[in-house]
Write a structure and sequence with these properties.
80% of the residues lie in helices and 0% in strands. It is mainly alpha-helical and 444 residues long. It has one domain (10-436). Helix 1 packs antiparallel against helix 9 (183-206), helix 14 (301-328) packs antiparallel against helix 16 and helix 17 runs antiparallel to helix 18.
Length: 444
């Protein structure tokens, strides 16, 4: 597999970013598939899984945040043409994922005592949570392997692996949920098998003869304490941010669930679609980080500004493609929702407003993630995550919790309105940080 040079041209940026967007879409599609396959099985099962996914991600996303930090070092090594060192950061994060397996198993074992589910969602929610947590080390292992390819801009490989896993998840969901009548347990098992398939594809290419020769992917397997610590230094702020953010969304989901089953259903549907469409922001973030890290590695600061401007245009373009249908003609989304066995026509007016707000949030988050990706590429993850958390808790989480505790009020519409304000303010602050150049650090 030959070396690849990443520049600031639109072609190079799209070659890196489009596969990352498709890969992120495939990952989020697995979550959406689980929910809507379960919707035809039981509306309560779908809502329980919507809450359970938040509880699982609260523990696995911090590990994924640390594991993905390897792509920054891989990118800078690639940009500075130190090709023989590319595999070392990936190995450190594989070790981290293996070390984290025991805590995941313990969390799964005690899952019955680590939940805040409303009573009518406990059984399905805990079952789903347990299965995924017993295999909670798989997502960070997948990201550790993917970082080797992301840092080089070789993202088509990741797209193939993720898409294959997502397709497998569809087939396995139908088999386990309906044919074998396993419900939430079957959906979780299908997701785990799909993760194994994705890891197997990435690992087979990582250990291919050409990669072993060019990048020493097997020879560089030794534990490197300094490199391990550097990955943690970059990844810990993102990891803590992921944990706190997912915990906050878990609180929001549980709070809305306690208000009423109808409001919980609206949240489940809107959040499910949000998880799917936010792949745009996630793909842009990964693409920005990989490209900027390569340019930092070769000390090409001017090209990073060109990349930033291009990503603003890409963010607005993709945001419009998926946001306009949600805001202008949400009826097609309502038709998709109509597969649920219960009559929820009374909820359509609130769902439509939620989808319109969702359109705004998708566009704002994509812009925010493009700026964030540049800061992370320079190792400035701490500032970005602190700003993000302070803004989120001040503008979104605390006001929502206050409304619930004071008046028993929790609304999906109010939540998404506050989210739009949070994203706009956070983007303004991080753009100021970008202009200051305090984020610019060559780490290798």
């Amino acid at each position: 597999m030959p070396h690849k040079t990443i520049d600031s041209s639109l072609k190079s940026i799209l070659n890196v970013t489009l596969p990352m967007i498709l890969a992120a879409m495939s990952t989020n599609l697995m979550c959406l598939i689980d929910r809507f396959m379960l919707a035809g099985y039981s509306l309560d099962s779908m809502t329980a899984v919507a809450i359970a996914i938040n509880s699982v991600m609260m523990f696995t996303c911090p590990l994924m945040g640390i594991a993905s930090s390897a792509e920054v070092l891989v990118g800078q090594y690639n940009g500075s043409k130190q090709y023989e060192k590319l595999a070392a950061p990936t190995w450190q994060m594989i070790y981290m994922s293996v070390f984290a397996w025991l805590p995941c198993v313990l969390i799964a074992y005690f899952a019955d005592y680590l939940n805040l589910y409303p009573a009518y969602y406990v059984k399905d929610g805990v079952i789903f949570q347990k299965v995924l947590m017993y295999f909670g080390a798989l997502p960070p292992i997948k990201l550790a392997l993917a970082s080797f390819f992301v840092g080089q801009g070789k993202t088509k490989i990741i797209t193939i692996a993720i898409a294959t896993g997502a397709l497998s998840n569809v087939v396995l969901d139908y088999l386990f949920i309906y044919t074998l009548n396993m419900g939430c347990r079957g959906a979780a098992i299908a997701t785990v098998i799909a993760e194994f398939i994705q890891i197997s594809i990435l690992a087979s290419i990582f250990f291919s003869k050409s990669n072993r020769t060019l990048y020493r992917t097997f020879q560089n397997r030794a534990f490197n304490k300094s490199l391990f610590k550097e990955c943690f230094r970059i990844g810990i702020p993102v990891s803590l941010s992921n944990f706190i953010m997912i915990f906050a969304w878990y609180l929001m989901a549980v709070t809305i669930g306690h208000v009423s089953k109808d409001e919980a259903t609206v949240y489940s549907i809107c959040s499910g679609l949000y998880v799917f469409f936010v792949f745009i922001a996630e793909g842009v973030n990964k693409g920005t980080t990989a490209i900027s890290a390569n340019m930092i590695g070769r000390k090409d600061l001017e090209s990073i500004e060109e990349v930033r401007k291009t990503f603003v245009k890409i963010s607005l373009f993709f945001g419009a493609i998926f946001a306009i249908p949600l805001a202008v003609c949400p009826e097609w989304m309502v038709k998709l929702i109509s597969m649920v066995p219960d009559d929820i026509s009374r909820l359509y007016p609130e769902i439509k407003i939620g989808l319109a707000l969702l359109a705004v949030n998708i566009t704002c988050e994509t812009l925010l993630y493009s700026t964030w990706g540049i800061l992370i590429a320079g190792g400035d993850s701490r500032y970005a995550t602190i700003v993000d958390q302070v803004c989120f808790w001040t503008i979104v989480c605390c006001p929502m919790l206050f409304l619930y505790c004071a008046w028993g009020y929790a609304s999906v519409i109010a939540l998404y309105t506050l989210v739009a304000i949070w994203l706009a303010i956070c983007q303004t602050i991080l753009y100021g940080r970008y202009k200051s150049l305090k984020w610019y650090n060559r780490l290798v």
